[in-house]
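Lab notebook, bench 4. The sequencing result for the construct came back, and we need a structural model before the next group meeting so we can plan mutations. Quick request posted to the team channel:

Model the 3D structure of this chain.
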Amino acid sequence: MPELPEVETVKRTLQELTGGKTIQDVEVNWPKMIKRPDDAEAFRRLVSGQTIQHIGRRGKFLLFHLDDYVVVSHLRMEGKYEMAGVEAPDKHTHIRFYFTDGTELRYKDVRKFGTMHLFDKGREEQELPLRQLGPEPYEDKQFTGAYLYRRCRKTSRDIKTVLLDQREIAGLGNIYVDEALFLAGIRPDARAAVISQHRINRLRRRITETIERAVEKGGSSVRSYVNGNGETGYFQLELNVYGRKGESCRHCGSPVEKNITAGRGTHYCPGCQRR
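Done. Here's the predicted structure in token form:
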């Protein structure tokens, strides 16, 4: 699933490709993706004639800011946007935005898990799914060590579960949680409530640094992720533990281990992340 750095990269690419374009028509071939309104034809009618003012992002959600509405798009596991070329759309192309200048934006999703919600402009943050999101670890002054420490003290969960909870922090996923915990020297299965404030402050810094570095590198292409131009990211070349089970730790040489924590495959170094 694309995480914050990948969605941020897609956002920037789509802003360059579609900013200022006017939607002439929309073709919805998989109506279940349209969650609000619950009628795909109503969605088509409302966005037709609207101009894309700019593309935003909240957590893992893309926000298409139109004249009067905001389309909130979640890519889920395999969703991706691309500008249409000369080739015909394939069977995984489920939504097509036709622009008045003759270009076309396609939404493709192998698993069909992606969603789109349409809100009146200004209402998107007040409604689900955005309403429940916590602060962001990227360019958000609310995400401080003090905030994270308070949230950890109020739970009996392990630290990885806390970091993956979008109500606590918006945008983090499996890859960047494992990487940040490694850099902070904290085991993923450590109880969040007993971690010292000093170590939580360090973790907050490592989370932000990891996200900033990943955004700089265009995200991590560990599976099928590409941006709107079809380009892969490069941060996967710098991963310390994620996807490196059995390989030597770049810092101490111990074999990277993998277990299940928070219901997710979790990578860590037993030498650098001691109990």
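The chain is about 25% helix and 20% strand.
Will bring this to the meeting.
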